[in-house]
Each structure stands twice: as structure tokens, then as C-alpha cells.
Amino acid sequence: MRLNHGIAVLPISAVMMGRTETIYPTLLWDSENVLLVDTGYPGQADKFSDAFAEVGQSIEKLNRIVVTHQDLDHIGSLPALLSGSPHAIEVYAGAVEKPYIQGEKRPVRLTPEAIAMAVAALPPEVPDEWRQKFRHTLENPPRAKVNRTLSDGEELPYCGGIVVIDTPGHTPGHISLYHRPSKTLIAADAMVVKDGQLYGPVPEYACDIAQARQSLGRLTQYDIETVVCYHGGVFRGDAGKRIAELAGE
After folding, report:
1. What is the pLDDT of residues 17-49, one digit of tens each?
2. Residue 181 class from Cβ within 10 Å (0-12 exposed, 13-18 middle, 19+ buried)?
3. Do 42 and 72 form a contact (C-beta atoms < 8 A)?
4. Which of 35, 68, 128, 143 has fewest C-beta within 10 Å?
């Protein structure tokens, strides 16, 4: 789904826990760069290849990946995308999230208790072999080297300019991105879209919901026309006004 020149959203769908779930990574490009924001669940690399083609891009030209945070649905296919590339891909992330992505620290949500609950929540018809594979993935999450850490307010000189915005709360080092040419906020999990409306962070999925809500205030300084949320997709309209409302609640 192309949003503007040089930016598209890639709907990636799969059956999770007995239901179909769609996530919305973002792809940006210019004459020298093809940059992907977040990499989906484990086992979705082939879906990315198809999604690239649907917006007229080749996954073989992918040369940069920004990971907004450590959660499994954002880092899942990172190792496969890196190993399947014909050339080196630079990986970017915030400094706080780097050790989780590299496997030096266990992701904050993947505690033994959380893993046990997730496995127990699988539908009863799920085969035992798949159940054990799911547990193994949670106990041994994907990992990959981060080549460069990003700082709040830094502007990446790619695709017309991409500004890094620290938006902690969902995870300790969560970041969002602002694409200047299209006035698009890539919010990752800082906000969600549901039934066509834009909402703030989801309390049950936030490590620190008060901090996550406070982070919304950092977004109000940008001229935003479009918001891409990893869960729910695209919000258009008076996005800046809606973000200000959420930040003020």
C-alpha cells in the first residue's frame, strides 16, 4: 500500500493463536536506499519478499533496517532477512533496545511466567509438535547484530530525511520515526488504530503505561498528516489534532 512517493506500508498477515493477525511494517526508498522499519514475526521473510514486489520494490535491494523495539513481532524475521540478502544490510536501533535485539538480554516480556501463559493459551487443537516449537521460539528469541544505535532527534539522511523520536513506555527504549517528505509518523507501538480511529498506547502491552502516554507529547511538535501504527495500519485525517488530543488526556 503506497502512501506517497518513496514510502509504503506492507500488510503482513498470518494466523496467530488461532486467529488471523495483520501487522504493518513500513518500507521507504530513494535512488540509493531501501529501508525497512521492523521485520515481523519469525518465519515471515517470504511474506516480506512478496510485499516488496507488490509496491514495486525488490527485497534484494534492501540495505537498511530500523528496529523500533525488541518485541518478537518486530524482530522475528530479522535474522532470516539478513542471512538471505545478497549483500550486507545495516541494522539500526535505539541504544536501550540494542542488547535485547542482540540477545545479550532477554526481552522484557519473555519471562518464564509469560512464556508458560502463552503456551497454555494456544487452542487445544494445536499439535504438540507445533506447541513445543512455539515454546522453543519464545525461550530462544531471534537475535541479530545492531550496527548502529540511534539518538533522539537524530535525522537519518535517507529517503528525504527520517527523524528519530524517543517514545519509551511500550518498551524501555521504544522509538518512532518521522518521514519529513510525506509528513508521516511511523508510530510502531506508541499508538494503535482500531475501527479507523487513532488511539494511544494499550495499557496491557506497555511496560510503563504512564511513560508511554507521556511520550505522546513528544510527537506534537511535528507536522503529521499520516500515522502508521504497527497494529491497525494507517490513520489519515487531522492526525496532528488527534495526537494532541491523546497527549492531553
Report:
1. 667 889 999 999 999 999 999 999 999 999 999
2. middle
3. yes
4. 128
